[in-house]
Structure formats: C-alpha cells, structure tokens
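Subject: design request, 87 residues
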C-alpha cells in the first residue's frame, strides 16, 4: 500500500524501495483511472493525494511516467499543481 513520505525520506531509501513505491503509485493511478470513463479526446486527471504521493522528487515522478508509458498510456505530470493526467 502506498503511503505519504517526506522528500528527505525518499532520497534516503534504497533503489529497490523506490521501485516498490513507484509500482504502488502506478497501480493506484491505473485503478483510479479505471473508475472514470473518458471520451475520445479527453484525459483522466488523478491528484497526487488520491494515490498517496506527497511532495515527490522528479526521480520518482519520472519513474511513474516511464512505467505508465510502458503500459501504453499518454502521460502528463504537473508537479506544481499536484496531478497526473493520463490518456
């Protein structure tokens, strides 16, 4: 289960633990996206707080983006506004 963590904690944990966090976040984003039906030309916005992401660094967000793209989603991440849009 994903949990909110401080940035300093993310930077201090091992890569395997970061990968586990990323997998948890991606699973939650995909689950949230499956709850909403988007019409053609629309994306699905998922707020960071909905999936347990708290104050992430770009490394984590980059991994989340890469994993979602690998699953076939188009991805836009706004760290400033705190959301992920997938298409």
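Subject: RE: design request

Done. Sequence follows.
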């Amino acid at each position: 289960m994903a949990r909110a963590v401080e940035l300093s904690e993310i930077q201090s944990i091992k890569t395997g633990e970061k990968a586990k966090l990323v997998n948890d976040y991606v699973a939650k984003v995909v689950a949230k996206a499956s709850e909403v039906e988007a019409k053609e030309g629309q994306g699905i916005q998922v707020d960071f707080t909905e999936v347990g992401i708290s104050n992430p660094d770009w490394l984590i967000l980059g991994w989340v983006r890469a994993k979602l793209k690998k699953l076939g989603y188009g991805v836009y991440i706004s760290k400033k506004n705190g959301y992920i849009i997938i298409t």
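The chain has a mean pLDDT of 84.
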